[in-house]
Amino acid sequence: MHESKWKIGRTGRSWDGDEALERYNLLPESTKIELHKGKFFQNDDERLTVVAMLLENLGIDKILTLFDSDVLLEALIIHQAGEEKFNEILNALEESKKKDYA
Fold it and tell me: Cβ(66)–Cβ(6) under 8 Å?
């Protein structure tokens, strides 16, 4: 696999200029995928379908190495418990740290 620095965050992003071309050039020669406004395909439904297909081919264990573990954990907690609960957890951790240093 080409070792590229992926910037996978909690929300999607478009690529600009050189980065768009760099990402596009990572595709295998035989692949014919359009690049539309800095993103592959026309819309999120098409993108999700392709991602799901690739995840099904690869399995979750393989792709976990692409993610920053803190970002992934944050997204999973928020997905399961909600943003409010996540913030409560962060606040409790901060309070705990303050008590440890007091």
Answer: yes
Query: Residues 82, 58: one domain?
Result: no
Indicate whether 31 and 78 sit together in one domain. Answer: no
Pairing assessment for the beta strands 35-36 and 39-40 based on DSSP bridges: antiparallel
Q: Is 98 exposed, middle or buried (0-12, 13-18, 19+ CB in 10 A)?
A: exposed
Q: Are residues 41 and 86 in the same domain?
A: no
**What does the DSSP 8-state code read for residue 67?**
S
Q: Are residues 62 and 73 both part of a single domain?
A: no
SS3 31: coil
Beta carbons of 14 and 35 less than 8 angstroms apart: no
Instruction: Kindly state the helix (H) or strand (E) to which residue 15 belongs, with its residue range.
Output: none
* pLDDT one-digit tens code per residue, 54-102: 888 888 888 888 888 888 888 888 888 888 888 888 888 888 888 877 6
pTM: 0.57
Reading the block at residue 71, the tokens are 């970002």
Determine the structural domain holding residue 8 and report its residue range.
1-66
